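Appendix B: a complete holo record

For completeness, this appendix reproduces one full record from the ligand-bound portion of the collection. The bound molecule is adenosine-5'-diphosphate. The inputs are the chain sequence and the ligand SMILES; the output is the full three-dimensional arrangement of the complex, encoded as structure tokens. No fields have been trimmed.
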Amino acid sequence: MKLKALELKNFRVYKHLEYSCHPRLNIILGDNAQGKTSILESIHMLGITKSHKTLRDVEVIQSECEHAKIRGSLLLEDTPLELDVVISKNGKKAKYNRIEIKKLSEYVGYLNVVMFAPEDLDLIKGSPSERRRFMDLEIGKLKKSYITYLIQYRRILKERNEVLKGIQQKKKYNHTILEILTEQLIHYGEKIIQARIEFIEMLNDIVQEKYLNISGESITVNLTYTPSIKDNLKEAYAKRQRQDILFGNTQNGPHRDDFEITFEGIPIKTYASQGQIRSMVLAIKLAIVEMIYKEKAQYPIVLLDDVFSELDSSRQINLLDHLNPETQLFITTTDLNSIPMDKLSSYQITTISQGQIKGVIHDAKPKL
Ligand SMILES: Nc1ncnc2c1ncn2[C@@H]1O[C@H](COP(=O)(O)OP(=O)(O)O)[C@@H](O)[C@H]1O
Ligand SMILES: [Mg+2]
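The structure of the chain with adenosine-5'-diphosphate bound, as generated:
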């Protein structure tokens, strides 16, 4: 899958952008706050309907505008394909060849993207909610049914918490409803936990080699899913019901789970240096690229947001070397000197300033 052209309307800093893409390597060059990341964010949203940066979709709508529009013209092998995502204050719409796809879960998967961004360090340094967000996003790309499970789970969880709060405040005690909701929560919770365990196991199988590829270090890395409920869900919810009522919400379950990364058996946060943490994040992302390829028989589009400036030259080269040459790449940078340009053969450099394209260079070696 290749993105041939991208069109943005009222998306962040862009009033209107028409961007024609290189099939292999797109470099987006510009000073800070000119709109480089926004281009990658829009490609991410075109694929997943979600931003990698914010949970609030409306943030991408240009100030004082009603909606933001993203249109991608793509090539799937030789077949042209058009995707649209429109974000408005009332929600989102997605179109496949101009036909609206009502369920966003059905839309996700036409265009696969993997983002490498500075915020990825939160995957290791951040709270468990960052890691859950990562799992949910990545599993959703691999398995459409997972998105449905999540939507159902979140809806039921919200209802169950309302019922618990009602009981806590002694307004009403509807035991039957609590029982039904608990049963439904367990039903979807088990599916979510199972999918996450499988995902983390798959990731674990690949990530060791990717870590070695990126860093050259042969350290034993291990990823394990750490559920907040270790025993049977049904028994656990029965046992914890009194506590849930006391707190007026569901204390445990997949919405509180996490996964743990260890280096040589020691939690990564305690063991690893800054550089090792960076390498680990890259290794995880490279593993995701491979998992998507295995599942879809298509290389995802890879978005590298300001990633090179933080890496030493050997890691920069390792990263490029371990992305399949068929992968279409979008790389943002403030400085071409931070990219190993001599490793690259065919590319396009687009210079961006204040939400506009200022120039495009094709294939020629730029003057550094
Ligand atoms: N909703 C919005 N409406 C208008 N401008 C926005 C919006 N969101 C962000 N911006 C502007 O976009 C610019 C940042 O874009 P970004 O893509 O992060 O830049 P870069 O990656 O080049 O540093 C800033 O100037 C910011 O003020
Ligand atoms: Mg940026």
